[in-house]
Amino acid sequence: MNKQFIKQTVSNGIVALTVIILGAFFMFTEPANAQKGMKAPPPEKIKAIIIGDRVVDIAYNLGVLPEAMSVRGCMWPLAKQLKTASQILGCPKCIVDKKPTIVPDTAKKRGIKRIIIEKHPNFCIYKPKVKPANVVPLLEGKGLTIEYVDFSQGIESAIRQTARLLNRESMAKPLIARYKKAMAKAKSILPKVKLGKQVLIINGTFQRSTDKSFLRIEAAGGYSDQYLLEPLGCINVGDVLKTENKKVNKGHFSIRKLDALAKAKPDVIVMTGNPFAVQKALSAAVKKNPALAQVPAIKDLAIYSLPFYADSSVIEYPAILRQWAAALND
To answer: Residue 274 CA to chain centroid, in angstroms?
Structure first.
């Protein structure tokens, strides 16, 4: 079935969306940190607690994981994989506000003496007051050694600092070289002229117990804008779907209907989270309102499943940027 034939079928809405669903499911599903042709050994567990996504990500890429960590687990996709080997104590806000004893209690129970904390000038754009170092007053007088990784001098400096703390200094230079090479490759495929495409980012969750799909729209001004859309010269049109009474939480707002797609007219629809939830919702929307088949993203089959990025997987960022560039450049 060629692309011209597919476009001819768009007019009936449902057939076109079926093609989209079947095709999009298989696109860009390779993990961001996969290394083709290489099998990395399992990470070494160390007697430490790391507080901060970026430090955990660097440590993981140096072949190390702490016994426990405090990261933004609900925002960082890789956290779901890492939590099978390292206990997540909660996010940096949670370990201070909701569970103020969990870090010292975990350290005492596990015989841990080292706490490694991320220092970042802008830890979370959604929660600007949240800093991993806010936990420090809760650790005083507990016999713990507190160490820091400062990101104010950039990612390469942070890699060197982390490697030194983890006794992996020999691995710092190769990791920096790999990161720089990946970043150069990503930048080489960025468009020289702004693409100017209107992009709608939909995060999906599929509830198996009820077979229901739940959708959240990424609001403008978030991580995707800053790290992915802006380098490509694209525009987030998610706010067009936002009603006045909807509240934005962690950069997203929930929706039940996709009727406003006709108003937003996205050139590209990006699916993050569970793509099936989004595919299912789009299929139902077009069946109910066949006119939605004329939305540019649906008409041109420009619907992609892409990884969400919240500036946690800093080592994997170049690969994620390349995926987005490959999709939006199409």
So the answer is: 12
From CA 197, how far away is CA 71, in angstroms rounded?
33
Q: How far apart are CA 29 and CA 306, in angstroms?
A: 8
Nearest to 71, CA basis, from 83, 61, 62: 83
Q: State how far Cα 252 lies from the chain centre.
A: 13
DSSP-derived letter for residue 228 is: I
CA–CA distance, 252 with 239 (Å, rounded to integer): 10
Burial environment of residue 258 by CB neighbours within 10 A (0 to 12, 13 to 18, 19 or more): buried
Superfamily per CATH, domain 3-30+189-328: Nitrogenase molybdenum iron protein domain (3.40.50.1980)
Contact 277, 215 (CB under 8 A): yes
Residue 30 has pLDDT above 70, yes or no: no
State pTM to two decimals. 0.86
Q: What would the two tokens of residue 41 be?
A: 């050994």
Mean per-residue pLDDT of the chain: 89
Kindly indicate the confidence band of residue 38, based on its pLDDT and cuts at 50, 70 and 90: low
CA 127 – CA 117 distance, rounded (Å):
17
Cβ–Cβ under 8 Å, residues 38 and 28: no
* Distance separating alpha carbons of residues 43 and 59, to the nearest angstrom: 9
Give the domain ranges of the chain.
3-30+189-328, 44-187
Which tokens go with 38? 């290489």
